[in-house]
Please model this.
Amino acid sequence: MAVKTTLSSATLVFDLCEVSSSSCMLRRGRLSLKGREPINTPCYLPPSSRGCVPHITQDTVRSNTGIRGLYIALEDCECSKSDVKPRPLASTWQVLEKVDGQDLPIYNTPTSPEQSRLRQFIALQHDVLLVMGPRRQPPVQARNANTDTSIAIQTSLGFSSLRSDDYVGAVQKLKPDIVLGLADYEHMKRPGVKRLEKMGDRTLSWTQDMVAGLTGDADRSPDTALFAPILPIEAGQQSYYLDLLKEDLAGQTSGLVLFDAASVDAVPADMCHMPRLSLTEIHGPLGVLHNIALGVDIIVPSFVGEATDAGLALTFVFPIYGRPANGRRQQLGINMWSKGYDSDLSPIADGCKCYTCSNHHRAFVRHLLDAKEMLAWVLLQMHNLHVMDVFFDGIRGSISTGTFESDRQVFEESYEPELPASTGPGPRYAFVACID
Model:
């Protein structure tokens, strides 16, 4: 059964077609913002590193991938001066906006009143969707805890705290297209009984702060759409927050952000038509399919970049037409560090139309990896993002034809559940948490 609905706010329009079945709720839609290229959902947004997709430039993303949206974390917008000593638990605004009394370049980027400083600073094309959240994906587990007025973050200057009012101020200055609201959720930490009582109240207070900051000027509509958090706890434990979200804040929020795809069950029925962005930590395509089966519209997967860093070339496709003839499960990717590719002149994946497979062969990529050439990871990233583009095209087509559930079952039976192990050292950089 297909049900068409449209969500329209001051900045965002979401046309949704719901396909219901006995086992899952599949959603296929179209997300549109003024001045941005419409995005068909389900879709994925690559997590960025300081505003860039790792290994490739913005123009390469434009010309060689289907990506038309980007996720950036505010905790990335900090100073990395080598002469600045780490200051754990320093004032948030000192870390994010000022170091030694000097404004960070991102806040001094020259723009017109209508332009986004963040977009100008990272040189992002004007028609690409820009989504900003407080933390990286996946986040580094913070040493300090959330408080009534702030969440714990990790910057290159050390662990710190991001106050709700500072987050609102950053959004007002940087003007992303979509901002993810603050949530009282700590990565990889299970909340205790007393903590559960606070989570909904804190998240409600921070959401109200953001709404007030975005709608403070009654004479003009907000430049940024707000996605409100749904906490990864039982609906009854956040019922007061959810009630006010659907009643008092329904007109000021344009979407929802989930930290666990299973939290879809907690979404009030009156808000089911809103777009859902998932920050669930996903380790492969099976996790993507699971999220989509639960009704997620936008996914921010980190495993693609992790596979590239590990020297893995993704090779999975969806849907699969016919199971393997030998009955054995296929690998989700291939380890390009393998010496068996030293003289292999075939493309990474047969039939792949990406730039890498169209112009180079396995032996060349293997040689680049062995020589520690940066181009190796550039070519692998371009290939892996193309695989994801084709993967999501197949998902949307499968939903349209009503065969998603059976196609998903065939996929699970045909592929190994995890990506293959890497045998190489990875690229010549490493993210190291600043711990004193």
